[in-house]
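To assess whether the prediction recovers the assembly geometry, we first specified each molecular entity separately, as shown.
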Amino acid sequence: MSMARGLNHPLLQRSRSVGVVLLTLLLLGLVTRPIEAPAWEIVKAGQPEMNLEAIEGSLGQGLVIGVLGGFRAVMADFLWIRTNTIWERRDRVKLDAMVRLVTTLDPRPDFFWINGARMIAYDVPNWRIREEGGYAEVSEYRQLAIDLEQAQQAFVMLARAREFHPENAKLYLETGQIYLNRLKDNVNAAQWFLSASQQPDAPYYAARIYGELLRREGKDVEAYAYLKELFQQLPDDPYAQKPIILDRIKELEDHLEIPVWQRFVPVHGPLPEPIMEGTKHPLERVHEHHSCDGHAH
Amino acid sequence: MSEVIRSISRIRLIAGNTFLEAVRQKFFNSLLLISVALVGSSTFFQQFDFGTGELKFVTDFGFGALFFFGSILSIAATTQLFFSEIENRTALTILAKPIYKLEFLAGKFLGAHMLMLVFTTVIMLVLGGILYWRESVLMARMGEAFVDGRLIRYSDLLVFGLLQWMKFGILSAIALFIASFSNTNLYTVVVSFFMLIICQLQYIARDAYSTMEQGIGQWLVRVLGLIFPNFQLFNVGDQLVFSQGAPLPAITVLQIVGYGLVYTVAFILLAQLNFKKREI
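The predicted structure of the complete assembly is given in tokenized form:
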């Protein structure tokens, strides 16, 4: 009698109902798995990857609306504006999380990747060095360690960006710029400028800078051969700046003491007029604009 | 057989009345207006964009508005329509007649689901219209970028609308299931929203824990992944609508529709399980 009363206790009845519901949903999950799994495989392949690592540092930043469904591009734009506010406040922990969140939400615009990498590689090291007492106080060894650490983070970010944009020359150039401008590492920078120059949308200056870096590294013979080949390959477009390349070839010939009869003679007709001072190739202008858009560069 | 036909007729009557009641609500009309205005103004919001293409931005904006306001409407309308019958005691009158509780629930669900059909159709038509207009302007301006024809697959925009409607169906059924044992409107709405968030984000947890070592944590996440339906499965707008990518196979669309139908029916039956024990 008391046993039957115990079984009919409201709490037990409620627990039984909950158990039945959970068990039903569990079975339903198993039954629908053959339909869901193949469809999910296809759907997932076409969506930007979203993982816990990318979002855990930014919970509460409007993330839920962003990741719930649509609005991802829109949320990414608004979160980028917020990222700039955080950048102004020099909150480097939050900045890192926000940049990761924005690029996770919308990995398509290269703008987020490039500017995020610049903030991490150029600005954060300055903040960290100032936090530790400033450039006068912090040893050069420590400064270099900070630069390397931050550059490494930016490289990881740019490597992820290249997964989404494998042929985007700007992303290769950015890695090269960080090696060149922040780490003063001409050897690695040269490799990245070379990779950038091999991309379909590469600006002309990428190859030219590669040649220049070879020269700076003392690889004059290699630089001479490369610039000669480059000159032949470039179109007769004023923006290709062929006269500048020819000047560098001549400088190298003087430096390498190449006999007159072996010197480079352009096979093409008259050289294009060098573009007037102040006018630049659109890509160079974009590049310079990006370089001066408020970040230490 | 005639009993089945009579049952269907009763469900149809309840659904029709529920739908009429729903479309007369100010909440529905204002939400529809806000959504349409938001989708319509997407070209204005594009000035906040940092590099996505215009058509992509407008599409994202439209899909976002559909998801955001559609989810609110789906949960709030279903809950409101269910509790209005309970609070006004009209449910007593209805159920006193030879109407089964399952028929009552099915009628309520279908009424709310028809409301969502109207909402989804209006938003998709507005979005389609704006996309067509913007794409035509872009085609006139930059013809060389459109040598392969239009970038948007407009018929697939409707397929996407259908899939979103299916998702709203599961959401309505979940709200109905929670309402079947809940005593208040607010509790139902809040719990339904939590369910929505879990269902939408469960795939992140599933992915994160799929790589971890065997253990209680992994089993727990696996079980949770089975208990909650995967709403991210319906998020196929980019794959469906843009012609640059490979189109979503028809079999995948059918699988998603089937998945949605199974969960919708299951949650209505679970709601019936609770509701039949409930004293009104």
